[in-house]
Design goal:
This protein is of the alpha+beta class and 433 residues long. The chain folds into 4 domains: 41 residues, no CATH class; 194 residues, 3-hydroxy-3-methylglutaryl-coenzyme A Reductase, Chain A, domain 2 (Alpha-Beta Complex), CATH 3.90.770.10; 111 residues, Hydroxymethylglutaryl-CoA reductase, class I/II, NAD/NADP-binding domain (Alpha-Beta Plaits, 2-Layer Sandwich), CATH 3.30.70; 46 residues, no CATH class. It has 15 helices and 10 strands. The protein has a 4-stranded antiparallel sheet with strand order 3-8-10-9. Strands 5-6-4-7 form a 4-stranded antiparallel sheet. Strands 1-2 form a two-stranded antiparallel sheet. β9 and β10 form a beta hairpin. The longest helix is centred in the last third of the chain and has 24 residues. The protein starts with 9 loop residues before the first helix and ends with a helix. The structure holds (R)-mevalonate. (R)-mevalonate (MEV) binds next to α9 and α12.
């Protein structure tokens, strides 16, 4: 048990960690990846607590995304090799076939005040209607600013949840948060409304007989009404990029089958959707958005039928191949880390400073592109060929290969199956020659 870790200075924290791993003399361990720019380092370390260093990830660009007729260079942050290469290849493929098309499905996010009370639903509901103006007035100072930006609280409605949990009610509040993700705004409104409900219950004599407990007030990261629909389509005959290596009709049929499998089988569905989130998370991270919230949202949406399923769907109709998905997501292009981190600001600049809705489209395109690339590889060459080729560089740096060794090993494995063991064996052999 370590007491008071947070109170230590950064240097003391580092010393403690070095002692913990028995590398007391390894002073450079924490500075290896530092930026060398004091102000930026201080800014970044201020985002979290108990910071002992800065943990950099590769910051990449996947070019050639054509979305609703507009071209984008899309910033990705990911540690997984081949994600960017696959997404870029897929983006180029669809660029040449009309690009991604999108449609925004609503912009309403919800938050809930979770209440336990012995009151009847009808009486509670009538009181909510009676006092609705007061509920709005209680948070006017916060809400008015969002109204001025074109958003604000849209709906307040009481839901009877007592069939799921005894005496459980939910006050469901719908918000439009414009270009902000809006977490602080929504949570402040919810807590303000909750306080007002408490005060109404204490002061309205017709409610004296009832007890009410506000258990919690919090936004929901589930937003089926704040989603983007995205699709690509092309005549089946256009699916060959010159390297398909199989008949386009056979490929389309096999691709559709692979997606159908992900629609009915949870083992496949999770991995299939993970391939989509390879792209989504990378762009979310590069733009300072909360990828955990975006992931949780999508996986809940993938379970909306009661069974976890594929988020994307593929069809061939009248010789047209179509691949599409509806992806719920809450993103922001103003506020939060988005406005602070120098590289998230750069990412937004590279994307042409999009609105939140435009960013949703870009993130969805990164997701569909990644998903297409993965399923295409799986149904044609298999995933390992491309993946291990990209992974070879990682294996070689892990083994401390020199530039010359890297070149020789890459040449040797250009027509062979790559595995960690084989690469290690071949490198040893090279070194002993
Ligand atoms: C690996 O990060 C992602 C894949 O497993 C996705 C998929 O199987 O569809 C290749």
């Amino acid at each position: 048990m370590i007491k008071g870790f947070s109170k230590l200075s950064t240097a003391e924290k580092q010393k403690l960690i070095l002692e913990h791993i028995g590398r007391e003399s390894d002073q450079e361990l924490f500075t290896l990846t530092r930026l060398g720019q004091k102000e930026t380092e201080e800014l970044i370390t201020s985002f979290s607590e108990n910071v002992i260093s800065i943990f950099p990830f590769p910051y990449s660009i996947a070019p050639n995304f054509l979305i609703d007729g507009q071209e984008y260079l899309v910033p990705f942050v990911t540690e997984e090799s081949s994600v960017v290469a696959a997404a870029a290849k897929s983006a180029k493929f669809w660029f040449e076939r009309g690009g991604f098309k999108t449609e925004i499905i609503g912009n309403t996010k919800y938050g809930q005040i979770h209440i336990i009370s012995d009151i009847s639903f009808d009486l509670f509901n009538s009181k909510i209607e009676e006092y609705k103006d007061r509920l709005f007035a209680a948070v006017a100072s916060i809400n008015d600013k969002m109204i001025k930006r074109g958003g604000g609280i849209k709906t307040i409605s009481l839901l009877d949840k007592s069939s799921q949990l005894s005496e459980y009610f939910q006050l469901n509040v719908g918000f439009n948060t414009c270009d902000a993700m809006g977490a602080n705004y929504m949570n402040s409104c919810l807590e303000g409304i909750a306080n007002e409900i408490n005060s109404i219950f204490h002061n309205d004599p017709t409610l004296d007989a009832y007890i009410l407990e506000v258990v919690m007030s919090i936004l929901s990261n589930y937003s089926p009404e704040n989603a983007v629909k995205i699709w690509v389509d092309t005549p089946v005959s256009e699916l060959d990029d010159g390297r398909l290596g199989m008949d386009t009709f056979d490929f389309a049929r096999k691709f559709v089958r692979a997606v159908e499998i992900a629609e009915v089988d949870v083992n496949r569905a999770v991995t299939h959707n993970k391939g989509m989130y390879n792209g989504i998370d990378s762009v979310a991270l590069a733009t300072g958005n909360d990828w955990r919230a975006i992931e949780a949202n999508g996986h809940a949406y993938a379970s909306k039928s009661g069974t976890y399923s594929s988020l994307s769907h593929a069809t061939v109709k009248d010789d047209i191949f179509r691949f599409e998905a509806i992806i719920p997501m809450q993103v922001g292009t103003v506020g939060g880390v988005t406005a602070l981190h120098p590289l998230t600001k750069l990412s937004l600049d590279i994307l042409g400073n999009p609105s939140a809705e435009e960013l949703m489209k870009v993130i969805a395109a990164a997701g569909l592109a990644s998903n297409f690339a993965a399923v295409k590889a799986l149904t044609t060459t298999g995933i390992q060929k491309g993946h291990m080729k990209m992974h070879l560089s990682n294996i070689l740096s892990g083994l401390g290969a020199t530039a010359q060794e890297t070149e020789l090993v890459k040449q040797y494995f250009s027509d062979k199956t790559i595995s960690n063991a084989e690469v290690e064996y071949y490198l040893k052999k090279l070194r002993s020659e």
